Predict the 3D structure of the following.
Amino acid sequence: MFTSLAGKSVIVTGSSKGIGKGIAASFAKAGCKVLVVSRHLAEAEAAAKELGKGASAFAADVTKLDSMDAMAKAAADRHGGIDILCANAGVFPPHKLEEMTSEQWDLVVDTNLKGCFHAVKACIPYLKKSPQGRVILTSSITGPVTGFPGWTHYGATKAGQLGFMRTACLELAKYGITVNAVLPGNIMTEGLQGMGEEYIKTMSASIPLKRLGALEDIGNTALFLATGEAGYITGQTIIVDGGQIIPESLEALAQA
Ligand code: NAP
């Protein structure tokens, strides 16, 4: 239905597991050349191997600009340029506000928000040369729309990414680069599976579509935003949460 993305050069930060790996898999399946990025090379290599031909691994840390520069150069050297950056790497260790230390705050902000800036900045020189440059950020419903105890720092970064996006899209529009964000709800990752069956059951019950999101739900949204057909969409958010944020109360959910 959409024009093929086959052959496009894609970077996905934080793609050794979880949502990033799912995004990388969607692009690999579409015939793209994908750079799988995480701090631990062995894990990134294992993920790249699973994705098959066209995917390769690179160890880099989004909290360091020189590491992101090296990542961008590696993608350009291996794939002849960069067309699509999925800035996805993120961490979410919960800490209640009253107990949170300054260092705990900094780790989350440095990874999720500053890391997003580093990844995008490093890729700009290459994205400018692409006929269809795309930046796709993984934000969250937590922060921009909802709250969850233990995640003041996390919510601030996920809302902050959207503030970053709205000016970045203006600055990069002259190069034909679009910048958009996907806001996942509760997605079935290895991390979430570890929360246990009871959590998953309760969480599923609070979602109108009665299931947690699949990795493909986020991967398909990122794929859409990367297509030529989505080329007139920039500075926008797409919530992918099975309707989770819609009910105004438990009563609204119960009466449906
Ligand atoms: P995850 O399973 O914990 O995976 C995180 C990935 O990021 C790993 O590949 C990790 O690899 C990498 N990473 C962490 N710190 C990094 C750093 N400093 N530099 C480079 N890579 C780094 O997480 P996830 O649940 O898939 O979440 C991915 C993104 O989706 C995050 O931005 C998160 O906020 C967002 N999100 C998730 C959910 C959900 O339901 N899971 C919902 C909404 C939004 P290394 O440790 O090897 O570096």
Summary: The first strand starts at residue 9 and ends at 13. The chain has one domain: 9-241+251-255. The two ends are 34 Å apart (CA to CA). The pocket of NAP is lined by residues 13-20, 38-40, 43, 61-63, 88-92, 111, 115, 138, 140, 184, 186-187, 189, 191-192 (CB under 6 Å).
